[in-house]
Amino acid sequence: ERTTPLDLLRADFPALDQEIRPGVRLTYLDNAATTLKPWPVIRAVQAFDAEYPANVHRGIHALSERATEAYELARAKVARFIGAEDPEQVIWTRGTTESINLVAQSWGRAFLKEGDEVVLSDLEHHANLVPWQMLAKERGLTLRFAEITEDGRLEPEAVERVMTDRTRVVAISAMSNVLGTVVPLEPIVAMAHERGAIVVVDGAQGVPHRAIDVSAIGADFLAFSGHKMCGPTGVGVLYGKREHLEAMPPAWGGGSMVMRVTRESSEWNDLPYKFEPGTPPIAQAIGLGAAVDYLSKLDSGAVAAHERGLMEHAHRRLSAIEGVRILGPSPEHKGGIVGMDVEGVHPHDLAQLLDREGVAIRAGQHCAMPLHQKLGLAASGRASAYLYNTTEDVDRLADAVDRARHLFKDRRPRR
Ligand code: PMP
């Protein structure tokens, strides 16, 4: 069996080491939905709750100061992780969904007008589609969709084809949560900027898998979620270029986001607080800081190679099973996600049969209904790997898929 040094990391993730039912060990391959948490993240959250569970930026007392320090340190860590110039450009949100809504509702409402166009792609998750639909309806915008290739890749030329002189926003996923497709962001950003459009990157899948450097890519906004990168649920990030964040009005009002308040009006606080009304997700942000520390200590090249190896193995094993169609591009064009359609087996049945063997995958439309319509599928199965998955996990997946396929094949009515 092939093993990698990354196998050693498994001990850091307590949830990996369990039987989901007596005698059935867990094989966790639902990482695109959410990842497991390593001890340093669990301990960081626990330390906050146990030792200094105070509110931030308010109390002039020791616990509040300690909480504020840890919370702002986490922001600085996340800023460094994505190559942001300044921690003030990292806005805490509840996750990718809220981050994209914030851009649409704040930047979009302030700067888009009737007839303006927003370019999206076939690959988009509902989180990077519905907020734009809502804004389009309100403001009379046109949405245009860059089409994927037959094998599920997104070529920069496809984006270029739908750009016009009315394009103001290109909102694009860095990596598809259904097909695993990695999108070539740099040429897309360059083309958009040439035309004076801004680029909003949905990094929910991209950031966890290959650290995105916003300075290198030049994206105007980047949205991502803590829980898909070893961090807690309930916290995410919106990164924005300073000029945009300065120009944007707040989307929500409340405490902390204001400097001075009278009965009639208010003055906004500075970045990043202008966008963070109310008590923020303090424990979660501190946990995300710990997650970023954890990921930063790993060799990102080795992690990428490990995930590539897992995908190559998954493609080899799954494509050898009769009736299994792998969705999306070949491993060199994607991250650690393998979408599949198994002839004669509904994805929900597939997921249920796999679960009996302890193999956790996801089945359904994965919040990407238009993509499934394009693929001509009612639903799909999705296995998604992360740094702690092993070749043996992929083998257990393939063996279970093989058994599911046979079970249904044998059951099919004969004519
Ligand atoms: N975009 C993509 C590509 C995703 O995979 C997800 C999560 N499935 C989201 C956006 C939404 O993330 P969240 O639910 O954490 O807001």
TrEMBL record:
**GO BP of this protein:** cysteine metabolic process
InterPro entries xref list: Aminotrans_V_dom (IPR000192), Cys_dSase_SufS (IPR010970), PyrdxlP-dep_Trfase (IPR015424), PyrdxlP-dep_Trfase_major (IPR015421), PyrdxlP-dep_Trfase_small (IPR015422)
Q: Which Gene3D superfamilies match?
A: Aspartate Aminotransferase, domain 1, Type I PLP-dependent aspartate aminotransferase-like (Major domain)
Keyword Transport listed: no
This protein's cofactor list reads:
pyridoxal 5'-phosphate
The highest taxon in the source lineage is Bacteria
* Reaction(s) catalysed by this chain's protein: (sulfur carrier)-H + L-cysteine = (sulfur carrier)-SH + L-alanine
What top-level class of enzyme does the UniProt entry assign? transferase
Swiss-Prot/TrEMBL keywords: Pyridoxal phosphate, Transferase
Has keyword Transmembrane? Answer: no
Residue stretches making up the Aminotransferase class V domain: 27-397
Instruction: Offer an example of a GO molecular function term for this protein.
Output: cysteine desulfurase activity
Q: What is its EC number?
A: 2.8.1.7
Record-linked CDD domains = SufS_like
As for family, the record states:
Belongs to the class-V pyridoxal-phosphate-dependent aminotransferase family. Csd subfamily.
NCBIfam families named in the record: sufS
Q: What is this protein called?
A: cysteine desulfurase
* Organism field: Tautonia plasticadhaerens
